[in-house]
Hints:
This protein is an all-beta fold.
Amino acid sequence: xxxxxxxxxxxxxxxxxxxxxxxxxxxxxxxxxxxxxxxxxxxxxxxxxxxxxxxxxxxxxxxxxxxxxxxxxxxxxxxxxxxxxxxxxxxxxxxxxxxxxxxxxxxxxxxxxxxxxxx
Length: 119
């Protein structure tokens, strides 16, 4: 089992910044991927960013490229999502998820953290 705990959501004005954290614990694997997803009001959940733990080079959805940065702290088993230049359309519940089989299927999910961007 893998436990994922997100934190760092909140209310921010458009153009502002927030940093989300996702702390992973539980069973360890030789390699796995962690991803960030979001679900905007009335929309389906969508991919935001992903990093393979042992490689550390993330990839991003086009909608957040250049504004969001995903990075990790190996010692803390934590990944972060630095969100800059936030837009109203970034308002969503953000989820962290783990792909332990490296197949693109995320078997473990955090509880989510709300990000609200106001005008």
